[in-house]
Amino acid sequence: MSVLGKLLANKRAGDEGLAWNRPNLAGGSTFRITSPDFEHESHLNVIHAGKRLGGQDRSPALTWSPPPAETAQLLLAIEDPDAPMKTPFVHAVALLDPTLGGLPQNGLAADDPAPGALILRSGWGRGYMGPAPIKGHGPHRYVFQLFALAEPITTGKSLESAKPAEVLAAGRALARARIDAFYERG
Question: What does the sequence similarity comment in the record state about its family (predicted)?
Fold first, then answer.
């Protein structure tokens, strides 16, 4: 076990800070999100992990059931509540066309996003950043959260430069969907 991982073993951001628990995003009904790349609460393949861990930073493919008919926009947020920080680490934020029924693998790439996806800032940079937990810190959960928004998101600045917290605070959910995965660095 890594010394740093051992020292931070009990330090975790926790679920409270997840987008899922924000009052503006906690509303309404639920719909279903799945992935052909992983089952709910299973482990992500190394291809989806960060490059420094030997992965390829490829976002998993996602599919979802139709959101409510009045959905103006979809908001996707991927967070790690097990990061040793005050708040969950944001691995991706994207605004999606409400007519989409899914994203292909690597559809959250900053330089080549899937059609209908506007890739926004994440924790460090833009686009999907794969799991890269501290060695020896134990398993980390990656929460893929999809929100059907009543109105398109606007912030006081351009969406491309807005911080994830600003984007997540700006929308109001009609419905939401969630799938969790795990990744652990040995």
Answer: Belongs to the UPF0098 family.
78 in helix, strand or coil?
A: strand
- The domain containing residue 145 runs over which residues? 3-184
Any idea what the CATH number is for the domain that residue 107 is in?
3.90.280.10
Report the amino acid identity of residue 62.
L
**Nearest Cα to 82, choosing from 143, 19, 144, 14?**
14
Give the count of domains, the chain.
1
